[in-house]
């Protein structure tokens, strides 16, 4: 068990510190892989020419830190479970700089209402009594819950009292609380849309739940297939504008979904992540309004304002509030008090509505420019999901490989995603893109599609 350790170049003023640092570095950089057996203290002290106590102490320290594990009979090995793990190797390929952001997840960051936000923050700072600067209520600041209850009722038809709203640090974080509360309540399996937003399944798996995919077609989740499953305690859907297909759930499916939840005493988790944006169709209310006792409704400021705010909310049936907020307190995940007060102020003064009216006009223009450019550069590609949200879906011809298009497009500096389903399709976001750049972005995208369609 030869171990190459260079104590001369290791950091530390004592031999023991240098030995500890050399071992830590070896583990962190992956040179000493998990499970690697280290020499005995007797062998290593002889090899390094140090006293045995130095090696014994260094091994004990790194074992306490979780880098090493020491078991009777097995000697000392680099820890495999818990403790520290080497990071995944860095991919060698250098990602080119993003020239055009076609990501479906980002609104127009340059249009963030900085002035209105600064004024709202200033007002919160000026007017909040000192005690509002203590640890925020783990359900959310009462001012924000009050403002959200009114805003969601009038803009989305959500029926809720302020005390059923849990304010969270982004919807992703809030979903983690909800899944843990369901799991503590005995739920083992939940269903998600396939294809769907990866964060939904990931947060559920992280909370220890089994996840069953249910297909999505042009009318949204195929509820018949959900009904055929056993033991599913909840289903997550994005009925207003499904990610990544852009499908809007049909009225018949909405009714069938609510009936399923009633019949199975199950929970529908409604992801209303970008419902503020709709262009050529009548606004469709949240399904939460149809059956508040069976629906946990999630919304977020990530698309209406900016993802960097990390402000979101879940409206949940009353029985989940206590366990979610107890968990929130334990995890310390509450969003910052002043920012919550600022958002409440922005809503109450009508500034959020004003901002959204401006953004809808902007995004409609950008979407129209995108559709025009697509009809010129990619006339044979079918476009879907353009009536709402911040992205469209391009259905590629069957012979075009989706991963190949993404690879070519990313290589020329386009940031974008694929649908990842059986039929090739890509998702093109148009919000965080200057209108003047849409033509050249689509030109580059069309070249990537053509390159992927050409046999090598
Ligand atoms: C479909 C969908 N749902 C939910 C979220 C979560 O939003 P956040 O955690 O930023 O509030 C996102 C984020 O991009 C999303 O795309």
Task: Compile the SSE list and pairings.
Layout: H1 15-28, H2 41-48, H3 52-64, E1 68-71, E2 75-78, E3 100-101, H4 114-127, H5 142-156, E4 165-168, H6 171-184, E5 189-194, H7 198-206, E6 210-217, E7 220-221, H8 223-227, E8 234-237, H9 251-264, E9 267-271, E10 295-300, H10 301-304, E11 312-315, H11 321-331, H12 337-348, H13 351-377, E12 382-384, E13 391-395, H14 402-411, E14 414-415, E15 417-418, E16 425-429, H15 438-453
The structure holds pyridoxal-5'-phosphate (PLP).
Describe the structure.
It is globular, with a radius of gyration of 27 Å. The two termini are 49 Å apart. The strands form four sheets. An eight-stranded mixed sheet has the order 4-11-10-9-8-5-6-7, with helices on both faces. It has a four-stranded antiparallel sheet with strand order 12-13-16-15, with helices on one face. The protein has a two-stranded antiparallel ribbon with strand order 1-2. The protein has 456 residues and is an alpha/beta fold. Helices cover 41% and strands 14% of the residues. Helix 5 (142-156) packs parallel to helix 12 (337-348) and helix 13 (351-377) packs across helix 15. The structure holds pyridoxal-5'-phosphate. Pyridoxal-5'-phosphate binds at residues 105, 170-172, 197, 199, 238, 243, 271, 273, 300, 302, 307, 312.
